[in-house]
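Section 5.1 Outputs to date
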Amino acid sequence: MIATIAFYLFSAILLISAGAVITARNPVHSVLFLILAFFNAAALFLLAGAEFLAMILVIVYVGAVAVLFLFVVMMLDVNFSELRDGFQRYAPIGATVGAILFGELALVLGGWKFAPEASVDRLSSTSGGLENTRALGRLIYTDYVFLFQTAGLILMVAMIGAIVLTHRDRGTTKRQSIARQNARTPADTLEVVSVASRAGVTSFLRPKPEPALVGAQVDESHEHGVGKPGPGEHG
């Protein structure tokens, strides 16, 4: 009786939090609801006797993935109003894909049924004294290894898509040019200066400007009083 009440309680909270993940306007609140959904799913795994999956869900997804989502959402300066501008334009395509997925789920659920022995083995431990973790590893990495690898590829594509959608070129990022660095010679950057004995160094010698930037930046720096040669500088 207590297990039945706990099952319905955790299931109800899980469904409500899962719906709040996609309906919340604040992305931080969505991540917090996602963490709540993970905890309730872990409780359901414990009720089903899959303690390994419950601990993995809490340690990996709540302790690492969800917290990482929270930090990324809080640190990235993503303009969500700009992302929502194209919602109406892509709504027909999204509705079509959603209808196809819903139809596939309906076909799967329509042809799905319990095996005759499922009612007996549903909440029982593994047979033959086999541990839960070893049985799960044998099932994933032996019987369904190709489906497991396919799921990994799908997650990788989703990760790349998320990076592409959130990437913004701000125009102020300094990029490295390997060919330009390899083409530079010591004569382009260094200059040997003969300093008289005991004359001292009156100021620091600045590096020579790059040839491509001489006309564009040197004049601008002189207007602001930067880059003017000192008493001990030669150039």
